[in-house]
């Protein structure tokens, strides 16, 4: 039932920030009598939709919910009180809410009302689904995810810069799905000039992330897919006073332009946090990737390795200079998982616990 909660929660991928993804299932006499998920911030929580669907069947039922029911008044009333009022007998919780406003309070309130509460069912899966929300709550910054694709010999393009395609179609479809669950995707000016990417989910009706370009000089092509903002919004970050003419041209195309005193990954991620974002995907080249890691804005790595060899002493690599001179300085990933995506290998891991190269 908890896996069903997670399945329901995923229906709102990319749409709930700064809130978490949550699903709820109500079971009575061995049958599902109500289901629900949180569709977006400001709308009712998963438990409310499930209770509405179950109606009078909620009395004496078991409620499964992937995240602890809230016990405070935010934009919506507390779900703990709704569950108590419905007369449910048992609540099974996937994970405790990391938000200090909740943090065990919902569970305690349910128990004080005589409801049996079980905590920690499929907890690891529940935590992973909402790792961006947890990062935002605990560290006051979005989860930074660096995704790159390289050949077996560590290249992301040939010596001429040609990079289409390093990975297979299965891997590219995986990335399109990944973007659905992200609030923003960040690239540098070089990526716009070289690849002219779309940075969308490529799926009809699915969520598209905010497309973010970091460019100190604004030496950007006049025409690019990213300037076509009907399908997905684009924001360009640059430094104060840089190239006002280009800024104006971008704005006339519907592109938001943000000037910062100093253009750094940390400052851009601070802006992403202020926008209410939980998950930010970095799909940039090696130089910006190195800056993002060094600035502490990347916590998770998704590396696709294609079984190809192209060679080239000057061919670009996925991460530029981090200033390390000994192997003992290398960043070691934790909680590493490996899988095959078609013929490509995907390595997934984390740079410390909410950590960075700075830590």
Major sheet: size, sense and barrel closure?
A: 9 strands, mixed
How far apart the termini lie comes to 39 Å
Query: Roughly what fraction of the amino acids lie in strands?
Result: 15-25%
Spell out the helices and strands N to C. Answer: HEEHEHEHEHHEHEHEEHEHEHEEE
Q: Using the alpha-carbon principal axes, give the shape.
A: elongated
Distinct helical segment count:
11
Q: Give me the side-by-side strand order of the main sheet.
A: 10-9-8-7-11-6-12-14-13
Spans of at least 5 consecutive residues whose pLDDT stays below 50 are 354-359
Helix content percent band: 25-40%
Strand-pairing-aware structural class: alpha/beta
Radius of gyration: 22 Å
What does this molecule look like?
- With 359 residues, the protein is α/β, with parallel strands linked by helices.
- Helices cover 27% and strands 24% of the residues.
- The chain has helices at 2-9, 46-54, 79-86, 105-112, 123-129, 131-139, 169-180, 189-195, 244-252, 265-274, 286-294, and strands at 23-28, 31-37, 62-67, 90-95, 116-119, 143-151, 184-188, 210-214, 234-239, 256-260, 279-282, 300-306, 334-341, 344-350.
- The protein has a 9-stranded mixed sheet with strand order 10-9-8-7-11-6-12-14-13, with helices on both faces. It has a 5-stranded mixed sheet with strand order 2-1-3-4-5.
- The longest helix has 12 residues, at 169-180.
- The chain is elongated and about 65 Å long.
- Mean pLDDT is 92; it is low at 354-359.
